[in-house]
Prior knowledge:
The complex is a heterodimer of chains A (163) and B (289). By secondary structure, chain A is an alpha+beta fold.
Amino acid sequence: MCGRTHTLLLLLLPLVPACAVPHAPPANGISGLERVWIEALGVDEWPAARAVERSLRRLPEVAEVTVELSTNLVTIVPRSDTEFGFAAAADAVRAAGYRPGRMWLRARGDVVAADGLLRFHIAGWKEPLRLGARPEPGLILFDAAVRFSSDGVSLWPQHAPAL
Amino acid sequence: MRRPLRSFAALLATAIAGRAQLHTVDAAVGSPELPRLSEQVDYVTTAHVFGLTADTELTWSPTTWLEAGIEQPWYRRRVAFGDPASGRLRDTLEGRGDMVLHSKLALLRENAIAQSDSLSLLMELSLPTGAHDAAVAGVELPRRQQLGLGATGAGLGIAYTAVRYRERTSAAFVWRHFGNHDGFDPGEELELDLAWSYRLQPRVFDASAPEPEWRLCAELLGKYRTDDQERSRGMDGGGSEIHLELGLYCQANGWLCLQSAVRVPLYADLGDPFGNTWIGCTFAVQVTF
């Protein structure tokens, strides 16, 4: 019995890293990030779409990927049990051989004031993200453009082209 | 066989270019995510030769700016030559040709929505892996008629590709130099290829209902070659040729692509004793992993 348990544990051992959550898990349960859209510029044929999809799927925080060839718009369904790495998604597009363009998100959360600045706190995330402009009051579902700068990620109220 | 088939062998050295065109090199470096395996079968006839070439190529991009490939042709040629009145010599040559290692270095890549411009440096190295001492009726064939040149060659070129929605246009220029082997020094080669393709279907891609991509492709394949040298003596055979190729391309899905094309000569002054090329047909299968 003890030997069997030992064998079973040895067999299951390689699965442990795969089960481990590789990115920061949401602090309070389920992530409020519902969709991320990113432009993969230069994608012009099915194999190219497949390359971008494969590269993005390799990210642990990505659940589903759909590439729209005519608009070069990639729709990402993020995993709800981990925070999403926006820069990692852009890097994945770049690693596939294409240029990451604009990025948008749709998320549930609330606007909070921190360090004298307004920030958007995606539900379940540890740290709020900087806001480039004040969103509409009474926000429930936030559509925003994601922009990168030396200060990190900032969100600007804007609908993705797909919406 | 001497000139036209060698010309086609050299054409095949830059063949399986992918991205709609069959022979003109596409300047865009392939995605590191997708290694490609291609098999291209080329059938060509001249006045006295029937030739079949099966060309296998594996291409992979270790980075987003560098693509590398290895290509191995296999030839089967039925030759008949000599004076018909005094009896013609006939034989079949079969075997592998010269292996080609090639790479593409991205110099420029500008991407926009469904548009791109690529400029790349092309480099290739041909290795004398093909037999070059075959004989017909006890007579050793001249080197140009052999399956391999017997000489190592190096090529350098540049390619440009522009994608504008449904259109793709490419231009590639390659210069090749071969070393001397057993007193035979193949002539220098210059190649200028142009390709234009148009996506017939779908007019607009729809991710929710993917359908095969069909393209029509036209290529203009030009080549100029200097005379060969044998034991420091100049030989005939240099010249130029231009071919027009029309092809159909079907990207069935994200991993399978089928291509076919017909090629006709527009101009040839290579002075080949075996006759100029009449018509060529190509069929290619490309799998991306």
